[in-house]
From TrEMBL:
Source organism per UniProt: Diaphorina citri
A single GO molecular function term of this UniProt record: S-(hydroxymethyl)glutathione dehydrogenase [NAD(P)+] activity
Limits of the Alcohol dehydrogenase-like N-terminal domain: 32-160
BP terms from Gene Ontology: formaldehyde catabolic process
Name of the protein in its database record: Alcohol dehydrogenase class-3
SUPFAM superfamilies reported for this sequence: GroES-like, NAD(P)-binding Rossmann-fold domains
Keywords: Metal-binding, NAD, Oxidoreductase, Zinc
Superkingdom of the organism of origin: Eukaryota
Coiled coil: none
Names of the cofactor(s): Zn(2+)
GO cellular component: cytosol
Pfam families membership: ADH_N (PF08240)
């Protein structure tokens, strides 16, 4: 029988700067090239908070936020071959189509296949799969994990080892992959990069723009590299004296740690299972999904590293 509309619980962001509302929403079946997932766990990232605070220039409301999750495939749309119902999966806000110019280059992970529609908060066909109280809800970062069920493009999903604990590997959907990948990139580019100094700055500087400038300027003259991974609010800019670059420092950035997402995340999951990658240490709080606004409060207060919400 064909998949039907599912009614489920979700945390809806009706408008910026308001707490999320727990609502019953309708999630339409996946269309061609799409997959519907039952989300098991989701963590809260600063990017969700900054979007909810109205600071993301691409933010669209009302929407279902959340982009650091894990779950189980419920149903698949026409033509989907890489995953099947029952598979354990992680949604990927940077997809991997393997067809675009960016995927074909080894220099970047920034797949562009569905980037425009993703930024507009809709599926690749230009429509949304979420409704609540008769209103369409926008998707977010191609993931929308703050819903018990969500729909994502097949290229925005990777299958992971069934034995991996979903309440831990959700962190590989954003935070840990981003930080780990950025550190590996820094180490590859310049083994002498003063990582200890950058970490110290992170503890004392609260202003992101000042921190990013200080990180560059603390780089070694001649070869030091500073890699930007943190997003800033709409209209914010970073600056430094050209002298800092003239004298051999490199200012660059990466998204999602530079990982080609569908190839790499299943491997990162396996590294965790083999005890070679830390995840548990980053989970500072665990709570029921219904407590999501308390999770946002913890994040704003600086008391949490990662809050994992279980449905
Ligand atoms: N939409 C924002 C930019 C937001 C942004 O830079 N997002 C990061 C991920 S944040 C994860 O917590 C990213 O990977 N961006 C890649 C991309 O293609 O957006 C804006 O400024 O408009
Ligand atoms: Zn994030």
């Amino acid at each position: 029988s064909l998949p039907q509309v599912i009614e489920c619980k979700a945390a809806v962001a009706w408008e910026p700067k308001k707490p999320l509302s727990l609502e019953t929403i309708q999630v339409a079946p996946p269309k061609a090239g799409e997959v519907r997932i039952k989300i098991v766990s989701t963590a809260i990232c600063h990017t969700d908070a900054y979007t909810l605070d109205g600071l993301d220039s691409e933010g669209k409301f009302p929407c279902v936020l959340g982009h650091e999750g894990s779950g189980i495939v419920e149903s698949v749309g026409e033509g989907v071959t890489s995953v099947a119902p029952g598979d354990h999966v992680i949604p990927l806000y940077i997809p991997q189509c393997n067809e675009c110019k960016f995927c074909k280059s080894s220099k970047t992970n920034l797949c562009t296949k569905i980037r425009t529609t993703q930024g507009e908060g809709v599926m690749p066909d230009g429509t949304t799969r979420f409704t609540c109280k008769g209103q369409q809800l926008y998707h977010f970062m191609g993931c929308s994990t703050f819903s018990e069920y969500t729909v994502v493009a097949e290229i925005s999903l990777c299958k992971v080892a069934a034995e991996a604990p979903l309440e831990k590997v959700c962190l590989l959907g954003c935070g840990v992959s981003t930080g780990y990948g950025a550190v590996l990139i820094i180490c590859c580019v310049a083994a002498e990069a003063p990582l200890d100094k950058v970490c110290l700055l992170g503890q004392t500087q609260t202003n992101l723009k000042q921190l990013q400038r200080a990180a560059l300027e603390s780089c070694h003259k001649g070869w030091g590299v500073s890699t930007i991974i943190g997003v800033a609010a709409a209209g914010q800019e970073i600056s430094t004296r050209p002298f800092q670059l003239v004298t051999g420092r490199t200012w660059k950035g990466t998204a999602f740690g530079g990982w080609k997402s569908r190839d790499s995340v299943p491997r990162l999951v396996n590294q965790y299972l083999d005890g070679k990658l830390m995840l548990d240490e980053f989970v500072s709080h665990v709570m029921n999904f219904d407590k999501i606004n308390a999770g946002f409060d913890l994040l704003h207060s600086g008391k949490s590293i990662r809050t994992v919400l279980n449905y």
